[in-house]
Structures are given as C-alpha cells and as structure tokens.
Design goal:
By secondary structure, this protein is α+β, with helices and mostly antiparallel strands. Helices cover about 30% and strands about 20% of the residues. The chain is built from 13 helices and 19 strands. Strand 4 and strand 5 form a beta hairpin. It starts with 15 loop residues before the first helix and ends in an 8-residue tail after the last helix.
Length: about 475
C-alpha cells in the first residue's frame, strides 16, 4: 500500500472495523498483489554475489519509499561487519504515544533456483494461480512484511495516527546467518531500537487455516562426529575381522546418543517441559497439509505428543553420514567415518554444554575414539517468551476478536530465527505473527503465499496495530 494510497489524513470513520475493512480492500482491489509483484521482481538474493547490489536497491527503492509514505523516517545503515549486507532503520515517533513497538523484517531471499520451477513459473516474476501467489520471497519474507506494511497503512487511514510510536529494522542477510545483526543491535543501534514490545512476521502458521502466534524459536547446534583410525582403506577380505571399522564404531556411538526411535539418551540434552508450555500445546496437531509428510506417531520422546516433541523438546538429528565411497562401494574397510548431526534445542538448554555433554557421554559409553566438534558459526540460540506473559494474552485476545476464534499459541517456532537479538540482547517480549504455512515451498522452487492467509493476515495485523494504539493497551 505505497505512495499516495497510504494517505494518513483521509476523513474516514475512526473505528477498528474501518481499519480492518480498509486492509481487506487493499487486498481485494489488487493493491497487495501489485506491491508484492514489484518487490518479488527485485532479485535480492543474499546467497549469490550477483544479488548483492539488489539488496541495497530493495531497501532504497522499495522499502524506504513505502515507509516514507507511512510517515516513517528511514535510513540505510552500513553493516558493522566488513563486507556485510546493509540494514535499514526506520521510526515513526508520535507525540503522546504511550508505548513504542519494534518490528523486524528481512528483504533478502535465497537463490532463485530458476531451473527447478514448475510449468512456466519464474522466481522473479509474481504469478497468481488460484489461491497461490508464486515467486521467490512471497512466503519468506517479502509477502509477510508486505502484509504488515499494508495493515499499518490501513490503521493510519482509519485513525490518522497509529496511537503508538514504532521502529522497524530491515536486514538483508537473514538467509546467510544475519551477519552483523547482533553487533549492530549491541552497539550503535542499541539505544535507537529501545522499545516496549516486539512484533514481527516470519515462519509458518501451524496450519493454513489456523492463525498462529509464536513466542521464540528453537535453537540449533551443529555437531560433527568423526572416527579417524588410519589413512586409506584396506581390503575387507584380507583385513576383515582384524581391523576396526570406523563406520561400525560411529554407528554404535550414535546409537548411544539417540535410540532407534529418536529419543535422546544424553541426560544433559533432555530439557524440562514447563506446564505453561505443555498447556499451550495441548490438543495441537503437527501437519504440513496435503503436500507435506505425515507425522510418524511412534517417533521421538515417548509420552509426548508430536507438538510437544517439535515445539517443547530437543531433537538430535543425523543429517548426513559418510564412510568409504558410497557412490561406488568397493570391498575395503574405510579408514574414516563422519556424521554431520544437529541438536535442535529449546530454551533452558545450556548451549555451551552441548558438545561437552556429548563428549562426556561418549567417554562413559566407551567411545574415546569418536572425535566431536561443534562447528563454529552455525549455532542458533533458543528463545521463548512464557505463554503466560501478559502480552501474549493481549495478542491472543486481539487476534481472536478479529477472526472470531483464539489463535494457536506456540511457545516457540520449531525452526530458528534471530529472535535472541530482540529477546535477550534488547530485552523485549517477542511475539511473531506468521502469514505463511508449512507447505509453502520456502527455500525451494515453487515458493508461494496463500491468498486467503495473506488477506486474513492483513485483517489480523490491522486489528493488532489498532488495538496497540488504544488507551491502556498492553499486558502489564
């Protein structure tokens, strides 16, 4: 909802319903599709050198003008890390506002994977087919922040002001690990980003028809296990039974870390499951819709539901195994075996003790020859706002008022986001309102945004922003 269409002084009824109606009209009249098409057309991939100039162009030519039309003062900020992608900081400070909201989005996308798209679809050209908007960034994250910008414009049109002050931080390196984000927020931008509450949109809903909020994200710790016994391979006929096999040793070692159904056996890696988290997850089903995989009900920690296993518990995953020449097996005992693993962990897990705990466990189990290392640069911290926090109740009530039923509340996303920057570093209550769904083909060819979810998201966010500007808003 850019340009003159976002006028903030039009005389229209100053009601919550008027703001929501305007947000829906923005979708129904084609404004949302037009804005999203323009944004998708900028190939702002952070994963390829060719996309680097487009990162700054996306901020300068698309985001900054859209925010200026909404009364924000915006500036592009250089990355504190040398060669890192740029940021954009914007703020709209309203006199007499009772509180300040911080929001976040990312303008970068993954590589296009142009040759993999179906039936004439292209990553850098928005195309609507039925209820799906196809194009790179439609789900992650251009479509989602387009929803939020459209909702802000709707509230400004209906009220003439937000009723609160707002700050927004855009980054363009989220898809490559957010280089410089933590340094920026801990340093030069820390005071400028001070706020009372954080609300942003990324990630998927629990299901397409289930409005969702999540309050943090699971962490991720890469762990590499290696058994390196000797140089080269040796004939299995001449040496079988006389030489230790590193692949056999590694397989046996992994079986002491996680059992045959995926339950973690290392005591230090088994988290607590607070009652507030268990209550929030009660009755929820994990589903990716008709295009996704089916849940394996007998997999994971016994006694937990699939939702508790994904959103409330840790999982140790073996991502890749290598020994010998699997693409062309020969009759030889390999000298080395390697496993690339990952612990997905929830808040409360001591991230600094993950690798040491596994080391201690392997030593107890008699596997001193298994080397272990946590690869540097690959950790995602875990965060979680307590589901009983007053701001959660406020957001739940606002969304329920808009859609007629309370949203799903996930204590944390199953995946990872840089939420620790806002929750831990800046000390804010963090609430995420996703406008995508698990089957969106995020990071793959045929990425898409569901039209009904985008339209409903506009209404939800218009309601949230309206309620945030009401006297006495908040959960304190």
């Amino acid at each position: 909802m850019g340009g003159s269409d976002a006028a903030t002084h039009r005389k229209v009824p100053m009601t919550r319903d008027a703001a929501i109606a305007r947000a829906r009209a923005y979708f129904d009249d084609g404004g949302f599709e037009a804005d999203l098409a323009r944004r998708v057309a900028i190939a702002s991939t952070s994963q390829e050198d060719a996309g680097r100039p487009e990162l700054r162009r996306y901020l300068a030519d698309e985001v900054a003008p859209a925010l200026a039309a909404l009364g924000f003062a915006a500036e592009i900020v250089d990355n504190p890390e040398e060669g890192g992608p740029p940021f954009l900081s914007a703020e709209r400070i309203e006199s007499g506002a009772g509180l300040t909201l911080l929001s976040y989005a990312h303008g970068d996308v993954v590589r296009g994977l142009d040759d993999g798209w179906s039936g004439g679809l292209r990553p850098w050209s928005l195309e609507r087919r039925g209820e799906r908007f196809y194009g790179r960034g439609t789900a992650d994250n251009k479509g989602q922040h387009s929803v939020n910008l459209g909702a802000l414009a709707a509230v400004l049109e209906a009220r003439g002001r937000l009723g609160f002050s707002m700050k927004i931080l855009f980054e363009t390196g989220e898809e490559v690990g957010s280089p410089g984000l933590r340094a920026l927020c801990a340093g030069a931008m820390r005071d400028r980003l001070a706020a009372d509450l954080f609300i942003a949109s990324d990630g998927p809903r629990l299901a397409p028809d289930r409005p969702t909020i999540f309050l943090g994200s699971r962490g991720g710790e890469p762990v590499e296990l290696v058994v390196d016994l000797r140089d080269g391979a040796h004939h299995s006929g001449n040496w079988g039974g006389a030489l230790a096999n590193p692949a056999t040793i590694l397989s046996a070692a992994i079986a002491t870390i996680v059992d045959r159904r995926g339950a973690i056996l290392v005591p230090e890696l088994r988290p607590a499951l607070p009652d507030s988290v268990r209550n929030a997850l009660a009755g929820l089903e994990v589903s990716a819709g008709e295009d996704g995989p089916e849940v394996d009900e007998d997999w994971g920690e016994p006694g937990l539901t699939p939702a508790e296993r994904v959103y409330g518990w840790n999982s140790f995953e073996v991502l890749a195994l290598h020994a010998g020449t699997p693409e062309n097996p020969v009759n030889a005992i390999p000298g080395t075996a390697r496993a690339h693993c990952q612990l997905r962990f929830v808040a409360g897990t001591d991230a600094d003790d993950i690798a040491p705990a596994i080391r201690r466990h392997l030593d107890r189990e008699g596997f001193p020859q298994v080397e272990i290392s946590a690869r540097s640069g690959g950790r995602f911290p875990a965060t979680r706002l307590d589901p009983d926090h007053p701001w959660v109740g406020w957001a739940r009530g606002s969304i329920g008022k808009t859609v007629g039923a309370p949203p799903v509340v996930l204590p944390n996303l199953g995946g990872s986001l840089p939420n620790d920057v806002f929750a831990d570093l800046l000390g804010l209550p963090t609430i995420w309102v996703p406008h995508s769904y698990p089957g969106c083909s995020q990071h793959a060819p045929d990425e898409h945004l569901l039209a009904p979810v985008a339209r409903e998201g506009l209404a939800i966010m218009a309601g949230l922003f309206w309620d945030l500007g009401e006297p006495g808003a908040g959960g304190e």
